[in-house]
């Protein structure tokens, strides 16, 4: 692993402003993210874990240009990407991709899978024609465990797990440098979650792409992470290697999360 981070976030702050009740001009400042710093190296999976509302999804949206920060920096390949306009961020979208939580909402129901997958290929000028695009899309669908005939079909014809595989294929087709996976398996049945996690880990290892994996569930991230950052009320309260987090947690909130993981008890022999 290189000593220079692919993504280096420093002192990130996000403030949401809401109107005060009963006061016409007054506003409340609510810190969604407080002085958050972390780094992600090439080929690494860093998981950001915490309860709903702790700020982890906000961080993911900021790093993909969907929301703005109050202050701080996020250096991607050495350049600060915070505060860029939509036009300024556009060249980065090939390199920083996002897998969304809801596999039903993230695919346009009016488009065929071929249209959904080919669009980023042509936007980023990665193919010259439809034949080349179909060849790449068919190969990628096989990698994610789907038949190339899926290209002719529409999103509603697939299960949630299959739709998430299509979403993963769309991201991987453009060969990103880093993937932001925001609760990528939380909307799936438990029986399907492990399959999709194994697929993500396999693709991540074979491609060398870095990943920021956002989840509320320590049991889920255990199988995919290299390092884990634990968030509580907008702050990172603990950041360490996966083994250290699970075997020697330092913060009370981390210990609370660990204690909430269901334990499978071995049955005694009669």
What does this structure look like?
The protein is of the alpha/beta class. It has helices at 56-63, 86-89, 113-123, 130-143, 160-172, 190-207, 218-221, 242-247, 252-259, and strands at 7-19, 27-40, 45-49, 71-76, 79-80, 96-99, 178-182, 210-215, 227-232, 235-241. The chain is globular. Mean pLDDT is 90; it is low at 264-270.
CATH superfamily of the largest domain: P-loop containing nucleotide triphosphate hydrolases
CATH class of the largest domain: Alpha Beta
**Alpha-beta content class:** alpha/beta
The CATH topology of the largest domain is Rossmann fold
Radius of gyration: 20 Å
Give the biggest beta sheet: 6 strands, mixed
Spatial order of the strands in the main sheet? 6-7-8-3-9-10
Query: What fraction strand?
Result: 25-35%
**C-alpha end-to-end distance:** 50 Å
CATH architecture of the largest domain: 3-Layer(aba) Sandwich
Average per-residue pLDDT, rounded, comes to 90
Q: In sequence order, what are the helices and strands, one letter per element?
A: EEEHEEHEHHHEHEHEEHH
Unreliable runs: 264-270
Helicity level, as a percent range?
A: 25-40%
Number of helices: 9
Using DSSP, what is the number of strands?
Answer: 10
What sort of overall outline do the alpha carbons produce when their principal axes are compared? globular
Number of domains: 2
